[in-house]
């Protein structure tokens, strides 16, 4: 006789946006989140939404980058008028929302909780208005600190990264894009054509989504995304502005989860139920220079593989994907691992349109993807076979990855939801090469990027190279204008070229890289 067990389901999702940038219309993140939870309760069962909210015994909150609250989960509980037995506040990482969904499903399966909510929200667009108008701080809930978050703040870097002012998202994702281009033997022009085509498709999808920051606007075409102009200046080669995440939005979302028994008891319609089947998570080194290579992501590959393993599915069972897309490289790496082209995938790879066109609500983007996935799967719920979706969430600089499979049907053979983390902290595979702070000599470029100023001019070259004599990895900046110009070229491929690394001075930790004359590879 099979022992009965609790089956976790998603019963309600809610999303809220505040499209206004006017100070008088500003709504702080906490209040956006409270609205999203109430929307999720109404979505599950409008007549019983107050009872559903009062039943919540777990509140998990995705970290807010807009406002440094003190005990945000406690404030959410207070705002909802509940006393949850369990609360959690995530790290500030784009993978966090999916991790919290997986954690909540596991707690339900382990009978630690009965009703749980995952919620997150941002009001960065409103905050930027207050700052721009000299009215900071806004009249919101008193913060724990006065610090304002900035995604590409190089002042927060340490060690080798600080010495070379490299390691924030705009640098690292660009370096991966360049390395993958080289690995695939693409020319620079072929690469930007592919990225702009991909993001042109994403822009159209976002323009159709009612929660997207660009909803209803004329979607940008591939050539607008590709062409470098004053309004679409280069940020870090090869990504212009319209290939970077756009975080100045006011958005919140929430997801309510419970058991099938509770849903039946509360009269929640069966066509509202969506089943989490299993998740997978993996973590790579937080220091990008300690990665095996820059043309693949062990963390993405491992999280996807572990997700399929824990859910009992394979890629052919998935009807809908949503791959996190702060930069084009993330969906490219996911597609490459699964073996299909990113620009013409056999199935959708985004439901929202990416963090540029849909908007990047801090670490909470993928909770919006979960909400949309739930709605799409509900529409497929009448089919005789299960319909399945997979959401991949990415955090840091390809550092933390979380994936989860959702379905219209329960797990195969009514198996129990995995009761332990399906986690791989150090993805197995090739080890990174030794990294040296200071060594001089001949070196080959492994990957690179060039940071541009606001006048669209190259400002600083960032190079990852390998010493010829011992294979050690070295981080360096450009050492002369000729090198900077060649790194910025659209006709010369820098990767694989030889140069020379020296220390900028005995008093600093900065290394400099210069090309040798006459060593030019044209594509």
UniProtKB/TrEMBL annotation:
Organism this protein belongs to: Penicillium fimorum
UniProt entry tagged with the keyword Transferase: yes
Record family assignment: Belongs to the thiolase-like superfamily. Thiolase family.
Transferase found in the keyword field: yes
Top-level lineage group: Eukaryota
Gene3D superfamilies: 2.40.50.840, 3.40.47.10
InterPro entries: Thiolase-like, TLP1_add_C
Annotated protein name in UniProt: Thiolase-like protein type 1 additional C-terminal domain-containing protein
MF terms in GO: acyltransferase activity
Domain Thiolase-like protein type 1 additional C-terminal, chain residue ranges per copy: 433-502
Pfam families: TLP1_add_C
Keywords, sorted A to Z: Acyltransferase, Transferase
